[in-house]
Specification:
- The chain is an alpha/beta fold and 331 residues long.
- The protein has a single domain (30-330), classed as Alpha-Beta Barrel (TIM Barrel).
- The chain contains eleven helices and twelve strands.
- Strands 1-4-5-8-9-10-11-12 form an eight-stranded parallel β-barrel, surrounded by eight helices.
- α2 packs across α3 and α4 runs parallel beside α5 (177-187).
- The radius of gyration is 20 Å and the shape is globular.
- It binds ligand PBG.
- Ligand PBG binds next to α6.
Length: 331
């Protein structure tokens, strides 16, 4: 690999000037690499701060127009919707997930009607925003049961597709759901609705602020280790991805983000499929608080996002997406 040696070879030579550094730059970040998550809340004219996530808000549907306009203006291709379901609409079966007038469904209809196909809409498929116990599926004898949960997820996916969702994103980690969802979408003529599978989702300690935001934190009494992956494992991620590709996933997600760059790289090397990364709420809040407290420079955000690209990610779901896209566009 190395041709030549010091002192005639000096790697600092190409780092001397900005033009030269730009010339040899291997990876780059553009607005096209970003997905922006939006939290939804019931009611009117609401823009509610989330305490655990400084700078992130929950919006009522009538306040979405401005934010979606901003997303489109800044050329972010996709937005992801997450509902903060009122407690009185939660139950242990998560039936609100199948209500066509739930927050997510109303938001999809509103955005599609207003913005057509100028932005992609992605929605989570899982029951945790709707269950009183905070789990992603049905619970029987303290265990999250797989097949019965999948039956509901199929219906949830179909409903979201009917509302106009473009990308169905099962984030529940049940076995076999991607294939069954694909089959049901196709049977109902939704051939073109994409599936982004959270194929590799770890039982992580970095989801705290998100659970706080959607209200599943206070209800969740145990952990999600009997369905989400063990963070000690790497090879298992390849099996998860292989299965989901076979079942029809168009793209796969690795989650959380920065601590799992090795997984992104490994998947990218083994499968030629778009691999997306989720820079999750805990990562966001750590970086954001670090900046707020003057511990780190705000360019840490761009650095973190380019690291995903370097590892091989096609795009990144990030709560920083809108701020960063604005910054990229003003350069
Ligand atoms: C659950 C879901 C979670 C996140 C997205 N979808 C949390 C969980 O598994 O408990 C976390 C996102 C984040 O932390 O930013 N279906």
């Amino acid at each position: 690999m190395i041709t030549g040696k010091y002192p005639s070879l000096r790697l600092r030579r190409t780092r001397k000037y900005s033009w030269s550094r730009r010339l040899i730059q291997e990876n780059n970040l553009s607005c096209n690499d970003l997905i922006y998550p939006i939290f939804l809340v019931d009611g009117k004219n609401k823009k509610q701060p989330i305490k655990s996530m400084p700078g992130v808000y929950k919006y009522s549907i009538d306040r979405l127009e401005m934010i979606v306009n901003n997303i489109i203006k800044n050329k972010i291709p996709v937005l992801a919707l997450f509902p903060s379901t009122p407690d009185n609409k939660k139950n242990k079966f998560g039936t609100e997930a199948l209500n066509e007038d739930n927050l997510v469904c109303r938001a999809i209809r509103f955005i599609k009607k207003k913005f057509k196909n100028n932005v992609g809409i992605m929605t989570d498929v899982a029951l945790d925003p709707y269950t009183t116990h905070g789990h992603d599926g049905l619970v029987k004898n303290s265990y999250v049961i797989n097949d019965e949960t999948v039956d509901i997820l199929i219906k949830q996916s179909l409903l979201q597709a009917q509302m106009g969702c473009d990308v169905i994103a099962p984030s529940d980690m049940m076995d076999g759901r991607v294939g069954k969802i694909r089959k049901s979408l196709d049977k109902n003529n939704y051939h073109d609705v994409q599936i982004l599978s959270y194929a590799v989702k770890y039982a992580s300690n970095f989801y705290g602020p998100f659970r706080d935001a959607v209200g599943s934190k206070k209800s969740l009494k145990s952990d999600k280790k009997n369905y989400q992956m063990d963070f000690s494992n790497s090879n298992e991620s390849l099996r998860e991805v292989a299965l989901d590709i076979k079942e029809g996933a168009d793209m796969v997600m690795v989650k959380p983000g920065l601590p799992y760059l090795d997984i992104i790289q490994k998947i990218k090397e083994n499968f030629k499929i778009p691999v997306l990364a989720y820079q999750v709420s805990g990562e966001y809040s750590l970086i954001k608080n670090g900046i707020k407290n003057n511990l780190i420079n705000e360019d840490a955000v761009i650095e973190s996002l380019i690291c995903f690209k370097r590892a091989g990610a096609t795009a990144v779901v990030s709560y920083f997406a809108l701020d960063i896209a604005k910054k990229l566009n003003s350069n």
